[in-house]
Amino acid sequence: MASPTDRRPTDASETDALLGPGPSSPSSDSRRKDSWDGNDDFVGLPWTQRPSVYWLIGPYALFTLAFGGVIVPKLNLIIDLICRGYLADREHQGFTVLPVIPGGDNPQCQIPAVQRSVATFSLAINVVVGSLSAFTAPRLGALSDRYGRKGIMVISSCGGLVGEIITIFAAKYPDLIHYNWLIGAAVFDGLAGSFTAGSVVSHSYTSDCTPPSRRSVSFGYMHACLFAGMAFGPLLSGYFVAWTGDLVSIFYVSLGCHLVFITYILVVLPESLSARRQNIAREKYAKEQEAYDAEIRAEELSERVEEAAGRRTPRWVPVEWAHKATTRVRRSNPLAPLKILLPKGIEHKKVRRNLLVLATIDTTLLAAAMSMGGVTLLYSEYMFHWGNFETSAFISMVSMVRVFVLMGIFPIINYIFRVRPAARQRRISGEEPRETNTGADRLDVWLIRSAILSDVLGVVGYIFARTPSVFVISGIVTAFGGLGSATIQSSLTKHVPPERVGQLLGAIGLLHSVSRVIAPILFNGLYAATIGSYPQAVFVLLACVFASVSVLSFLIRPFVFMSEDADEAVSEDTSRRAREQQNEILAEDDVVPHI
User: Fold this and answer.
1) What is the pLDDT of residues 568-583, one digit of tens each?
2) CB within 8 A of 433, min separation 6: which ones?
3) Per-position b or e across 512-528, b if 16+ CB within 10 A of its CB
4) Which tens digits make up the pLDDT trace of 175-203?
5) Quick check: 141 and 197 in contact, CB under 8 A?
6) Which of 496, 437, 348, 497 minimizes the C-alpha distance to 4?
7) CA dist list (Å): 7 to 11, 355, 360
8) Is residue 436 within 8 Å of residue 554, measured between CB atoms?
9) pLDDT, tens digit, for every residue of 11-29?
10) Rounded alpha-carbon distances, angstroms, from residue 182 to 100, 101, 189, 341, 544
């Protein structure tokens, strides 16, 4: 028998229609509390104060352009600064060297010593940003549940703002400000959550103001902005640097983008979380902290009672300090945000499985996308002798197909399989169906499986492609895999109550940050090791990974969700058990030392 929190709206099987009666059936509405009431909090307000994903699409596109537009210029700047320092040292040793022209062709920098230093320095920056954002992004996501999305968006952009200021000063005054200050810029960026936190909170905003039936499409719009920014940002920045003749100019543009984004968020964007929903999230957080504090106090009290009764000798002072330090570390465990993927209780068994499977698939897809972009370009240049124009055209075309799929095909699929059936049911019943979070529906599940299949087919095409045309067609096939990430992240938000969306996406952001550090080392290292013997080896590994993920996707079950009532019950039960444990300990002895 299904548990209350894992119950399905119907007992239909996977062979039934994609949606079935689902959440809009009268019987299912009567069986559970409505868990999506985003529109109710803003009824009666003017349209300028009602949150919508359309308020965010333009600024988010600007945010992604600012992030993607400086990737290549910043790498070139690092090369110039490191090369300048290296050649200056050589000049002091009596060698004659050519001056380094910022942003220009500097063949004197294309030497192993400089390239090695650049690779090491770039890795250090990536590790700093990835490590710090892995710690801060999930906490900022959870904080946005309690205090609103707008402030956290501003914080995440302020990190990039400070980073661009440091970069500009390092580029303009290299004799005064050493290039190692760029690591300081990475520290500020990472502490503010970097791009990961901005993406997490933006998707949380989208989830807040979009009903479940349209959430996948809205997430698709956000992912389309992301892919467009990452693809066209470097292209536009290249043209801009060529037009101005100044490499530093693009960093001024990025600085301006951050300022415009921050101003827009503060002045124009309506907050998506009402005061009521923020208060609900704060109350739940307070209960969780109270329960956790009660567990810690019960543990400490148990130790003191045992010492007083002579059942345990007191710890040596340094050991006691170490024990207290361990307790504090446990409370600030960097992996603690992942606990939302493992909700407690036997009644959440199916929810746990779905959350873990979806998080694993999403992290794998993102890790592959973040790490394989550069490898794919290097491989295409090596195999087909492409130049800058051909590789840029390939990336732009694949990105355009991906954007078209997300903004053109995806809404049509959603209209056919979700909007039209809902409209038909509304005409038959004469009532407006009430939308609630009911987990991923069958359309979500099959979209995820289809997207992963397109990734598998495209990567297999890369393995066997020996002509540019086959390689390009394979790239177009992989572009349809863009449906996967958008559908997965929207499906994740349907598994938890609204006041936990930021916390959930923050945990996903932690996994993303870690994957940004580990995956490039794995794939780039394999490509470097096999380029001379079998350059397709990296694609073979990727195909195996995608095939495994495809099998994993068949573990996802539709219409599984965590109800608000059960979530509150688990929190209250934890607090109650901690209090009972405390009382049992106090009753254990007649003599209890005063604390």
Assistant:
1) 554 555 555 545 555 5
2) 23, 24, 29, 422, 425, 426
3) bbbbbbebbeebbebbe
4) 888 889 999 999 999 999 988 899 899 99
5) yes
6) 348
7) 9, 16, 23
8) no
9) 444 444 444 444 433 333 3
10) 19, 19, 10, 35, 37
**CA–CA separation, 270 vs 26, rounded Å?**
33
8 A C-beta contact, residue 168 and residue 228: no
Check residue 23 and give its pLDDT.
41
DSSP conformational letter for 314: P
Cα gap 132→185, rounded to integer Å: 12
Count of all residues that appear for the chain in the document: 595
CATH class for the region spanning 40-273+345-559 = mainly alpha
Amino acid in the structure at residue 451? A
* Backbone angles phi and psi of 430, in degrees to 5: 75, 10
Domain-wise residue ranges, the chain: 40-273+345-559
Nearest 5°: CA angle at 409, between 408 and 415? 100
Cβ-in-10-Å burial (0-12, 13-18, 19+) of 30 comes to exposed
Burial degree of 405 (CB within 10 A; 0-12, 13-18, 19+): buried
Spans of the chain, pLDDT less than 70: 1-38, 90-106, 300, 303-332, 388-389, 432-434, 564-595
588 CA to centre of own chain: 48
